[in-house]
Amino acid sequence: MDKWVEVQLFIETAERGSISRAAEALGLSTSAAGRHLANLEQRLGARLVERNTRRLFLTEVGDEFYRRCRNIASEMQEAEALVSSALLSPAGTLRVTGSVSFCTQIIAPLLPEFTARHPKLDVAITAANRYFDLIESGIDLAIRTREHESDSGLVIRRLAETRRILAASPEYLERHGVPKTLEDLAGHRFLIYTLANNPHELTFSKGSEMHTVKITGLLESNEGQVICSAGLNGLGIVIQPVYIIHDDVVAGRLVPVIDDWDLPRLKVNVAYPNRKYVPSKVRAFIDFLVEHFDAMEYERRWTQRWP
């Protein structure tokens, strides 16, 4: 039992950056917490935590030990959930990751309703334009938007499909003209999202026809919000998934161009670790997302053509 308390204390200390705050979270005195941590380091024969006058930080071996302990603690919580009321009432912290755009535009507005349904759940969101190793990072589920989902040992649940379209502000089109054909694109300015597949090539299809157009960027960024902001301010043509710019198109702030041609579509998926027992908090969030996506008819809205 003391070993488990030591591990719990170490995890809390690593996450809170303070032994006193970790002790408070576990209902221990600061002196008792210090003894538990010292006993853990003595038993392992390694220094896990270093402190200076300003902060506490993990050693290299301490960081590796923390990541492994966090996964073990997550498995323990899952096991306890199988024999507790958490099966019916999800509790704890749900850790979610997705792109900055998806977390900002889709997930964040849903949180008030979701947390009202599940008041015992806290939500921690890691918004980043990269794909994490979910198990190593201690993340419960990820929203992934890509053309193809590789076989990564994860469970993949499809939410929707979205088109990618070209669009520009009315001001830009008034100054530079509206491209009518693929050949017209050669004379236009592009705002390029650098994390897209082959960002400097656009592969268009229409029926059995396919054409590839090479483009250069007046502006390039690894953040879609930067690209969209520049496009709204008339800097150039954006190439973005409809889910990101749908509201701007509906409001007339962006105007689709050459919409009779298609770019490769993106699939919006939920990915989570492949486990025999899926934690109730993960099931609850996935069910909530599926319900919301169906009610909003996102796939229909995100795959329509614009007149």
What is the CA-atom radius of gyration, in angstroms?
24 Å
Judging from the principal axes of the Cα atoms, what is the shape?
Answer: elongated
User: For the record, what is the CATH homologous superfamily label of the largest domain?
Assistant: Periplasmic binding protein-like II
Q: What percentage of amino acids are in beta strands?
A: 25-35%
Helical residue percent?
Answer: 40-55%
Reading off the top of the CATH hierarchy, the class of the largest domain is best stated as Alpha Beta
Number of domains: 3
Instruction: State the end-to-end distance.
Output: 67 Å
Put the structure in a nutshell:
By secondary structure, the protein is an alpha/beta fold. The protein contains eleven helices and 14 strands. It folds into three domains: 2-72, Winged helix-like DNA-binding domain superfamily/Winged helix DNA-binding domain (Arc Repressor Mutant, subunit A, Orthogonal Bundle); 85-157 and 268-297, D-Maltodextrin-Binding Protein, domain 2; 164-264, D-Maltodextrin-Binding Protein, domain 2.
